[in-house]
Amino acid sequence: xxxxxxxxxxxxxxxxxxxxxxxxxxxxxxxxxxxxxxxxxxxxxxxxxxxxxxxxxxxxxxxxxxxxxxxxxxxxxxxxxxxxxxxxxxxxxxxxxxxxxxxxxxxxxxxxxxxxxxxxxxxxxxxxxxx
Amino acid sequence: xxxxxxxxxxxxxxxxxxxxxxxxxxxxxxxxxxxxxxxxxxxxxxxxxxxxxxxxxxxxxxxxxxxxxxxxxxxxxxxxxxxxxxxxxxxxxxxxxxxxxxxxxxxxxxxxxxxxxxxxxxxxxxxxxxxxxxxxxxxxxxxxxxxxxxxxxxxxxxxxxxxxxxxxxxxxxxxxxxxxxxxxxxxxxxxxxxxxxxxxxxxxxxxxxxxxxxxxxxxxxxxxxxxxxxxxxxxxxxxxxxxxxxxxxxxxxxxxxxxxxxxxxxxxxxxxxxxxxxxxxxxxxxxxxxxxxxxxxxxxxxxxxxxxxxxxxxxxxxxxxxxxxxxxxxxxxxxxxxxxxxxxxxxxxxxxxxxxxxxxxxxxxxxxxxxxxxxxxxxxxxxxxxxxxxxxxx
Lengths: 131, 394
Prior knowledge:
Chain A is built from four helices and ten strands; from the N terminus they run βββαβββββααββα. By secondary structure, chain A is α+β, with helices and mostly antiparallel strands. Chain A has a single domain (7-125), classed as CATH 2.40.50.100.
């Protein structure tokens, strides 16, 4: 069970969390947005569509690069954050808040157990991205 | 991050301390951005920005026959310029392909400095050396020296850049040593320099003598500052300490690219390479018709343009990228992207492309498409530059 206000992270730098209304949301991590730089375009997933864990749900483009966004767990898209169409910079400004990507439904709460909690994710970044 | 043998400029530690995103580019670890490409870009357009471009190469050509030599190696009329002037030129191979695009600084009839693209420094130096060997065998007096590692190079660009530079320098208008350089002529005051002229000045407080040129790669008013490598960090920090004079921000390579592209300034490896001739690239105005130079003979046989460089904007939001395909109205491939980026000044994607079919008329290109990872994005030809007023093309 995901606690409200807590976030779980995938190795491909997406998060899933539960907001104050007990709805699940997904997005990309603060680390991911800082690596991308200024986000100028995002292709959002389709509302109503189900995606398997690690399946590609969209693309995110910054001035310099483009990356794919993957489903952190098996999920179904309830609605997308359409504000990102006109203000993709929300992803840079509030990656875990107003810059979320979609509201989702997940079949098993326990699916998130394979993901990393915030501290574990921080260690993961430190280990895999030291320069 | 790749574990190659990239070099560091004298400012690597300063960039790291400022939290820059560092990438390997042209054999150097360079800052891509400090905070935001868009913010850095717009600050150069509106105020001023400072760039570390110490990765660029500098080659000195000296000797009694230096003027004759530079006229043969470079396509532009180099020896005709005055001491203290700079000229943009191409270096061609014997087939007329572009080896590099460079700027040449004239110190005297006997001494020139060439500033080359970082990625091409070794290649250019080897080529110029090869030509020099041939000259020497014929008894000509020319020597060539790669002084890239000894030089730190800062670029200060933007409409307010003069508000930073003028108060911090005292002009050293004299004949003789200027940092690493030897001026055999009396240079102009820095404030009197016109575009593509250079002089000498001392930065007060830090006592650093610098060769300063009125030049840059952004489409804005600006300066490039040549100093001894070991003094680069001191000058960088001194200029940033005075950032309030011109609302100065450090700017990384990301914004350097978006700035140069909005100004439609070509980039080697994108708008030019050894398979592209100067006519294709629209650079024929840099070919002298009053002297011989390497590649000139081959160019005589190039009658028809094989490719044409076009500039375009997109109505969608996806960014075109180097080497993506261009499709005509009927989705027939007609070319490839040279450069593509997001234009921070216009807030839409822009690009350049080589279209291969010389029969394609630009006026037919009101509606064409770019294959961006399988999405066919609509594009329209426009006339650059992109940072002033974007005009419809044709």
